[in-house]
Design a protein that fits this description.
By secondary structure, the protein is an alpha/beta fold. It has helices at 6-15, 32-45, 64-67, 83-93, 110-128; strands at 21-26, 56-61, 99-101. The mean pLDDT is 85.
Length: 129
């Protein structure tokens, strides 16, 4: 995407007009930490690098997978890390402390995310005014 080709480039051009970047991390990804790091590398490389200074929030989705370890949860989906390990590894990789947890499927944490994101975006927009 940062090289100026593909759908990722078009998406990053769109992101330039936003006030906050929300990273949605899939708890059941093969490597959610590397997914997060790869996205941030692309953000740093894109354009002038200005996107890298944009405020970010990281949200881990599918937290219900942690509660169902050992069960036939969503047929074949498993978590590579425990919730505690994923939290520690993400916090190591994040340049900030804005980490939230949710399950879109179970609607757990969604309202809290929306409320907190609204307040954070308003705060960021107010600081940029």
């Amino acid at each position: 995407a940062a090289k100026g080709v593909g759908l990722g480039h078009a998406f990053l051009r769109h992101v330039e007009r936003c006030h906050v970047i929300l990273h949605l991390v899939d708890a059941t990804s093969i490597d959610p930490i590397e997914d997060f790091k790869m996205l941030n590398r692309e953000i740093v490389k894109y354009g002038t690098g200005q996107l890298a200074s944009m405020p970010q929030v990281v949200v881990v989705n599918k937290i219900d997978a942690f509660d169902r370890a050992g069960e036939d949860w969503e047929k074949g989906l498993k978590t590579k890390y425990t919730k505690e390990d994923l939290q520690a590894k993400l916090q190591e990789a994040m340049p900030h402390a804005r980490l939230m947890w949710m399950s879109a499927k179970e609607k757990d944490g969604v309202d809290d995310l929306m409320t907190r994101m609204l307040a954070f975006v308003r705060k960021v927009k107010g600081n940029n005014a």
